[in-house]
Amino acid sequence: MTIDFKRDVLAPVAHDFAAMDQFINEGITSKVALVMSVSKHVVEAGGKRMRPIMCLLAAKACGVSDMTHARHLAAIIEMLHTATLVHDDVVDESGLRRGRPTANATWNNQTAVLVGDFLISRAFDLLVNIKNWDLLKDFSTGTCEIAEGEVLQLQWQHQPHATEDIYLQIIHGKTSRLFELATEGAAILAGQESYREAMRHYAGHFGNAFQIIDDILDYTSDAETLGKNIGDDLMEGKPTLPLIAALKLTHENTEQHQIVHKSIATGGTSHLEQVISIVKNSGALEYCLQRAKEETEKAVEALQVLPESEYRQALENLAQLALDRIQ
Amino acid sequence: MTIDFKRDVLAPVAHDFAAMDQFINEGITSKVALVMSVSKHVVEAGGKRMRPIMCLLAAKACGVSDMTHARHLAAIIEMLHTATLVHDDVVDESGLRRGRPTANATWNNQTAVLVGDFLISRAFDLLVNIKNWDLLKDFSTGTCEIAEGEVLQLQWQHQPHATEDIYLQIIHGKTSRLFELATEGAAILAGQESYREAMRHYAGHFGNAFQIIDDILDYTSDAETLGKNIGDDLMEGKPTLPLIAALKLTHENTEQHQIVHKSIATGGTSHLEQVISIVKNSGALEYCLQRAKEETEKAVEALQVLPESEYRQALENLAQLALDRIQ
Lengths: 327, 327
Fold this sequence. Notes:
Two copies of one chain form a homodimer.
Chain A: H1 5-10, H2 14-27, H3 33-44, H4 50-61, H5 68-91, E1 96-97, E2 100-101, H6 103-106, H7 109-130, H8 133-155, H9 164-189, H10 193-217, H11 223-226, H12 232-235, H13 241-249, H14 255-266, H15 272-281, H16 284-303, H17 310-324
Antiparallel strand pairs in A: 1-2
Helix pairs in contact in A: 2-5, 3-7, 4-5, 4-9, 4-17, 5-7, 5-9, 8-9, 9-10, 10-16, 13-14, 13-16, 14-15, 16-17
């Protein structure tokens, strides 16, 4: 059976999801008209809202009955995610995101940076209203780690000696950590101390799989279906897993090895065609796919601590769906 | 007697100030080397640390005996201030701040935006450790208002019909609000509910005076003494008080009025010399100076609720010193 996002992931929390969306709109309300227009623009440009949906499903799966705080938490997660996208678009000078003009392109860099700052602050403000110390500490530490992960990625740009371990540290910070906050936060709201670790592991492994798949797609997708340009990572000299694996699977003194090595070191896409074929022929893609599968398996395994429910099943479906992107 | 910053402002809290500085260094510790280098660079490029000193003085003036939390709070204030400067430098594409290369110039925009985000998150993380709900709520709301104030400033760029009231809203957000957090936060730590309002008023009026003076200097200072270029605000079409006053003090159908009106609307410095002389000859500068004096008087008046002490005196000296910049 093919997994369908709406039917097999969203449906069990569709009602909470609608309420959460309404809460995001209240959250970005501001007496400053420009803050509101920009926030509205960037929040509406959001994608599938995977992170808040994960948060809502996790809350239900952990046994939360009154979903008020969980809806707020899901909105907070999405606002934090949106803030990072807005800042990413400024630093990457992106003009489009998911086919829509970015905030920096529609307004300017100043507005985009400041509205990003506003969204971070408002997310914390809404979080404070929930009045839960454990939750607050988890988020304040987590957001530091997210920023650190993004800087670590910059630090390793153009470094061909990056290892898989370094890569995992980077993607944990820049991607998996926010997923972890979404699900562990839900377990905290449920008051289920014993579920915290399981929920964190689910989201952490899911996030790793999700990012590995994203990095594979940078060498295999076509631009039209994804809104992502092939070769973006290579352009920036990012040592992602497909390249790290390709370096490991080719011998140091081969031309293939040297082309990948040099491409990371210099960035640019002048050897893009060659790098793509090396990644494919060296077995690097198979290796990455295998790693994504392993991470997905670990994610699903972590869920088994929770009692069986349609919500747990939906979390499992979501993990499977992410993997389906490349199969 | 001329007020001396070190002797008449800093001295009463010199010991706490040194400990606070140490705490900032611990606060910016990160396992990511690049995060640490950039944070260290931008924190060290800081100026007189007026905001944390104000926080320490306010804590003492409100009767705080154990200064541990106050030192932490002062460090948090400085970290938030630093984060806004780092982001400002990115959006203004500034290469120098106080004669030192900016983070965006030394590294790049990406690094600067992300380290700014890290500093905001770390500031919240340290704040959560103090475990005081009132303090946390004040800061989470306040940081939203600061971002909103900065966006409001962008919204009113190139708008000659901005009023003094709009101007006051802008400077309250972008400047005074952080000063308020510094002193009201100290009153919260002191557990002195009755001092909260007085401390907020002191800092709010001080901040207004400070910003009005800064805006006067944009039309009167020389670049060498200030590290600020004359005409920066005019360049960006910012309707600051000197221009708002000049428009009010000249008749609509005069050439002078039209030059100022047009300069705000278009930005640029092609009429800088003329605008400077209009600001001076129309009585706008005197008006601004008068307003700065009034704000300073209100700041000092608000202090009178506190018991007399060397700390209260130092806060009064600080307000006086800010005014001395233009006399």
